[in-house]
Design goal:
By secondary structure, the chain is an all-alpha fold. The protein has a domain of 39 residues. It contains three helices and no strands.
Length: 63
């Protein structure tokens, strides 16, 4: 069951990740153009913040 939950969560991430470029491709392209201008430290800070927020969500929502 845990393996099925992992694959379900991964599939949901892919769906959510695909929605923004489907709905607003020009804004998505602009966002990635802006991301390319950030330095490595800024990107890493954003990444660690996202990871910590995701882990907090898992901790709060997991049974």
């Amino acid at each position: 069951m845990a393996e099925a939950s992992f694959w379900l969560a991964l599939a949901m991430v892919l769906v959510i990740e695909g929605l923004f470029p489907l709905i607003a491709p020009a804004a998505w392209r602009k966002l990635f153009t802006q991301l390319m201008q950030l330095n490595d430290g800024q990107i890493r800070s954003f990444a660690i913040s996202s990871i910590l927020l995701g882990l907090l969500g898992i901790w709060l929502l997991a049974p």
